[in-house]
Amino acid sequence: MKRIIVLFAAVMLVFAVSAPVGAVDSEFGGYWRTRAYTDGNFTGEDDTEAKDVTKVDTRTRLYYTAVFSDDLKFVNKFEFDASWGAPDSLGDIGADGKVFEVKNSYANFNTGSFNWLVGIQGRTLARGFLFADDFAGVALTYKGDNVSVPLIWMKANEGGSGKDANDEDVDYYIVTPKFTMDSTTINPYLMYVSSKDASSWAKTSGNEDVNVYFLGLDLDVNLGAGSVWFTGIYEGGEVDLVGGDTIDVAAYVAALGGSVKAGGADIHGQVFYATGDDDGGDSDAEDFFVPQGQSYYWSEIMGYGTFDNQVSANSPADQVSNILAANIGATFKPMDDLSITADLWYAALAEDDAAGNTDLGTEIDLKATYKVVDNLKLDVIAAYLLAGDATYDGDNDANPYELGLRLSLSF
Fold it and tell me: Which residues of 214-234 are buried (b: 16+ CB within 10 A; e: fewer)?
């Protein structure tokens, strides 16, 4: 790790000294965290211990932006991860792992009322129900007084060169205008996924001609003492399978949440529903599905949460589909440097599993966050799932649990 940070500093120094004096300003930032956690009974039973794990890991992100002017920036984000101990090449004795990763690298520039982001960049759409990831592509945004209109092209798969190779390209095309009116923000969006032959991409193997669209709306209302939000997405279109059959796509996600201050607590809650497929053998695809990029974190055990290493058996994790989930929780601040959050989650499959079960269970999450010093905080997490039959339906059933710590800083 020390050698990687020295290498990064050397590269940034070259950037700084090689530019003409006064031509470029440099901005530095970053994020670091170290986590230690234990997962138990995530299979829903205590016989095989197949998902039991106790580990420590570290993530470092370093950001460098070259600022040429108010209208031109060159943004770079670098990342390296390590699990403590062998066989991880960075986390073992010696710590000389070759794990330097480029997270983002893009040009950010303005031409009149239009902003351009060109390169490897990140984006969140529909709070993550639709997309929350990095991608290679272009985002062109018109910015007005109370409106912004991004037009986005994401390259999901490149077919390469050769006859009909372009047919294997998979592209996402997105328009996502945002309107702000006093305390209300309205964000409609349309994402279109297109390919003439998507079968070579692992995420869409078995599919040829893909024409699928996602039409949705985010609504956010600030009520002063509280807030309310809503997300609704309809997925439609057609997919031609490699065997020649055609699948009609019809699925949706609906989510509602909010928060309110009550006494010394912030009360929050949400509910979301994503359709599943009630008959995998027919010509209709009714399960909400995004080929890649969807990521919505929710509870600690069923929804990835803070440690995001694994989830309890048969939960869709952050790829929200075939699920109904509801949450109520509260955050308290007994002192300036300490906050405590308690959450209660219930989740069930939208459609029965093969055994006729739907109940994933009821989860209790507790989290305490303490500011150790400025910019450095410690999270202590405990979670317990009263597992339902859809998590595990058999002998030796046992409830999943998770205990962990996270020390993190950002600058």
Answer: bebebebeeeeeeeebebbbb
Q: Using CB atoms within 10 A of its CB, is residue 213 exposed (0-12), middle (13-18) or buried (19+)?
A: middle
DSSP assigned state of 160 = -
Question: What is the distance between the alpha carbons of residues 342 and 297, in angstroms, rounded to a whole number?
Answer: 16
Residue 380: is it exposed, middle or buried by C-beta count within 10 angstroms (0-12/13-18/19+)? middle
Chain centre distance of CA 79: 16
Q: Is the pTM of this model over 0.70?
A: yes
Over residues 302-321, the mean pLDDT reads 97
| CB distance 136 to 153 below 8 Å | no
Cβ atoms of 324 and 348 closer than 8 Å: yes
pLDDT bracket for residue 360 (50, 70, 90)? very high
What stretch of H or E contains 129?
A: none
Q: Considering only CA atoms, which of 41, 218, 58, 36 is closest in space to residue 127? A: 218
In this predicted structure, the answer to whether residue 143 has a pLDDT above a threshold of 70 is yes
Alpha-carbon gap, residue 248 to 284, rounded angstroms: 5
CB-CB neighbours of 314 under 10 Å: 20
The secondary structure of residue 20, as a DSSP letter, is P
Amino acid code (one letter) for 31: Y
**Reduced to 3 states, what is the DSSP secondary structure of residue 165?**
helix
108 Cβ neighbours under 8 A, 6+ residues apart: 72, 73, 74, 75, 115, 116, 117
Q: Return the pLDDT at 20.
A: 52
Quickly list H helices, 188-311. none
Q: Which amino acid appears at position 408 of this protein?
A: S
Identify the residue whose tokens are 């309890």.
312
Determine the pLDDT at residue 12. Answer: 52
> Is pLDDT above 90 for 4?
no
Residue 220 Cα distances to 77, 186, 223, 292, angstroms = 30, 7, 10, 26
The confidence band for 98, taking pLDDT boundaries of 50, 70 and 90, is confident
Token pair 């075939």 is at which residue?
Answer: 322
Mean pLDDT of 53-62: 97
